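In the design runs reported in the main text, the only information available to the sequence generator was the tokenized backbone. The following block is the verbatim input for one such run; it is reproduced so that readers can re-run the procedure and compare outputs position by position.
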């Protein structure tokens, strides 16, 4: 087994659902896409052309080795002739979610809330976010308020995938 797999805690599946009221970066609209980074890892969604309320519904899977390394979400506007413009950013705090995963819970009623998180100045949450038991899996839906920009929210869902060890 390779060393990189041995050091991996598991896979974090981040479903990038949609953007809401993203800023107009070009003349009338924007061509947004999302980039997720953690350390040196980088994943991105497809570009949605001419849309400030894009729907991506794309799953990006991030191998997690250290839950203390922040996960960054950045929205960019795709430009053809110049560099892509940044349209806002947020930090995804995965630590509360990972604490719930480590509890080793099983067979809870569907929709059971394990933990509820309130928005703070540090966590980028727009409103309350629940960590929920969902069809045998623990998920967390988040609406992230983008920073360093006039407006914009990105909705995501976290889901943990265990890595089988031989």
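Verbatim output:
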């Amino acid at each position: 087994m390779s060393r990189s797999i041995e050091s991996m805690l598991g896979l974090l599946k981040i479903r990038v659902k949609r953007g809401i009221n993203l800023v107009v970066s070009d003349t009338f609209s924007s061509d947004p896409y999302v980039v997720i980074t953690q350390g040196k890892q980088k994943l991105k969604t497809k570009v949605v052309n001419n849309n400030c309320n894009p729907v991506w519904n794309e799953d990006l899977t991030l191998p997690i080795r250290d839950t203390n390394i922040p996960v960054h979400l950045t929205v960019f506007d795709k430009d053809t002739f110049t560099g892509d413009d940044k349209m806002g950013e947020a930090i995804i705090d995965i630590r509360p979610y990972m604490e719930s995963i480590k509890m080793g819970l099983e067979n809870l009623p569907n929709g059971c809330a394990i933990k509820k998180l309130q928005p703070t100045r540090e966590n980028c949450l727009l409103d309350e976010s629940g960590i929920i038991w969902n069809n045998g899996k623990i998920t967390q839906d988040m609406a992230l308020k983008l920073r360093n920009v006039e407006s914009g929210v990105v909705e995501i869902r976290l889901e943990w995938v265990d890595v089988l060890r031989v």
